[in-house]
Amino acid sequence: MSFIDHLEALRWHIIRSAISIIVFATAAFFAKDFLFHDLILGPSRPDFWTYRMFCQFGQWVGNPELCMDKVGFVIQNREMSGQLTMHISTSFMVGIVLAFPYTFWEIWRFIKPGLYPHERANSRGAVFFVSILFALGLLFGYYIAAPLSINFLASYTVDPTIENQIDLQSYLSTLTTMSLSCAFVFELPMIVFFLAKAGLVSAEIMRLYRKHAIVVILIIAAIITPPDISSQLIVTIPILLLYELSINIARVVRRNATNRLNAELAANSGVS
After folding, report:
1. Which of 13-27, 69-83, 162-176, 245-259 is predicted most confidently?
2. Which residue intervals of 64-125 are DSSP H helices?
3. What parts of the sequence cross the membrane (predicted)?
4. What is the pLDDT of residue 90?
């Protein structure tokens, strides 16, 4: 294919991806009650799933303070068109999230023909695993990281006479930032997989710089969580587990590459 043909193919991949985003965004726009009351505003109510699980855990360990009977903040809108604008922008964001697997699949369809046969074989299932990790990270951010951040930041006071009246934009920004940050952080194993395939990282390098990686992970956890040690630890632990999983992935990639090279050398030796 010529350069113009490649651009034409890329254009149609982008168009199909944009259509999928618009379809999901439109569906989210008309599902306003579920989108806002059940999904987005869920972490702002004490009956949210995460708070109920923490309460049950607190009762199990004999610490009733983990139960949250009421939230310490009120969400409000201060602009005339604020709710309409937020409705449209939030629906578009939800459309992007829901269309992510299909969008990545379209991008992968454009990249895949340029790979060598063994590269296509080794990357089989990439769309599936990228989508699964994205979904797991999104769920972790929505059910764990975001509620902890919202509950800590919105209920924190320097004086009891000051009420926390949180702007809708600020609340949504915290929720989306936490959820999407975790979604992309959970892609670490796939990133390491492709980097190991390209020979840019190895299990030995990752083990050598494990201490540096822990520092970086702690910094990332501190950025995407409130200044609360328990919240930072809850976010840090799964990222550390993903890093250890990535080390094993890099080791397997290196071992498979070595076995394939040895098999090719043995085959060439037999022919000669």
Report:
1. 13-27
2. 82-98, 100-111, 117-122
3. 12-31, 84-105, 126-150, 170-196, 208-227, 233-253
4. 93
